Amino acid sequence: SSASKVSSLEHCHHGAGDEPSFRMEDLPAEILPVIISLLPLKEAVRTSIVSTSWKMLWTFHCNLCFYGPNELDDDPSVPPLESDEEAAVDEYVKTSQAKLKMKQDKFIEAVNCVIQRHSRVGINKFSIRCGLHKEEFYHLDRWIGFAASSKAKIVDFDLKKIDSPSREVHQFPLEALVVQGSSCVQSLYLADVSIKPHPGIFGFTLLRRLVLEFVEIFRDFSGFLANCSALEDLELIECSGVTNLSIPHQLDKLQHLLIDRMAVETVESNAADLAHFEYKGKEIPIVLHGRSKLEMATIMFEGSNGLARAFTAVPIILRVKVLNVQAQISAYEQLQKLAPRPCGMFMHLRHMTCGLTVLSLKKPNSDNGVLQLVHCLNVAPLLQTLHLDMIYSYFKASAPAEVAEEEGPHMHHHGHLKTVHISGFRCYKAQAELACCILENARVLDHMELQPRVAAAICSYADLKNFAVERRFLPGVREWAQLASERFGKAITVLDAPSE
After folding, report:
1. CATH number at residue 214
2. Which domain holds residue 132?
3. Is residue 106 a part of any domain in this protein?
4. Taking the chain, what is the end-to-end CA distance rounded to the nearest angstrom?
5. Does 331 reside within a domain?
6. Residues contacting residue 156 through CB under 8 Å, at least 6 positions apart
7. Are 130 and 161 in contact, with CB atoms under 8 Å apart?
8. What is the pLDDT of residues 440-499, one digit of tens each?
9. Is residue 455 part of a domain?
10. pTM exceeding 0.85
11. Which tens digit of pLDDT belongs to each residue from 223-249?
């Protein structure tokens, strides 16, 4: 155990029968709490038992992280049963709920015990991950008060583990984190709560990171943000209550803005130094002022025309150096061609990652949707690195779709593209045609990597199919790569190849 390891240090570096040359007690008093704080809280408490003089060391632990039961009201789904079976299931459900309640009570008791005995000195992080019912919310208010009074720098309250149809969301009091006109919080993460921000909340002058996930936002969010002038990272994930998101100009230090599946109608940012912008959701008007410093962007528009819209409807990303595009594409949604003028070109783009889900009504060998990517390469003449992930998905349309005929890829000569990686490559006709276009026109291409496996980044169940993919597609991909390498005189590596 950790306690025995620490204790054994007292007996090192000495000969048989000699007194130990080094003892933990000989260290300066201010060093011991630092050593103990490097252990998890539970281990720190156990280690404090080793010596009576260490008894209170754990009360100076700087990271207090508490993780409660995963779910409450966990009602298992069961099919219709006979009356006697229903009684047995009811008893099982009651027993399960009782066990969960006992775990919850024990968790609450442990948290209250720690914060009651803690010195409240040098707190770096205070984190709570649990689910509570309405009648237990008063514990949260006590924990929030502790985080504020102990001057914690990192505060996390994740309450999304609860799973109950009748649950009530806790109204998180932002004002409670402000003590005597100021807050020491530098990073704040809130999940599955509601907040009522307004311009009258001052004191968050040190807040550099704010992450809200599944949060109900009421009142004036932009007015609250205007008082957080030190904010560098703002992430909003599936939050509700905001229709038009406006980032005020006071956030002149904001570097990263993430908007993920928000039900907003418009996004406008006046943050002058924004360097990294991420948007995932439906196509909406996006206006970023001060975009000259934007270097990295991630765009994922919903719908089968997402790739086209990312390259034609978001002029704000024309100056980025790194672009990550995630989209669904189909053969009957053609990419809108950009005018071949410098004002419509991605003249600064050097690295692009593209995750494509190909929606197909027929067999993948006859689907030409991926050829749309040629148009994207044509408007990025200085691109150096391309990372392409592909996966095919089949669906049945209610009415036959009219598939547009693709003229065939017309890729311009490319003088800067050096490295290309393609995952989900199965030698489908359009995939092979795309790869040949790149090999033929990328004049300085050093290396192309092909990977039959579907990247986990675009397919959560990729690992379940990868074993079969290796056996089925790998031989054909290796043979194609060898022939293409000889034809174009370029190095092609096939990943996932079994060791010889």
Report:
1. 3.80.10
2. 62-70+99-257
3. yes
4. 43
5. no
6. 125, 126, 127, 128, 129, 188, 189
7. yes
8. 999 999 899 999 988 766 665 544 455 555 568 889 999 999 999 999 999 999 997 554
9. no
10. no
11. 999 999 999 999 999 999 999 999 999
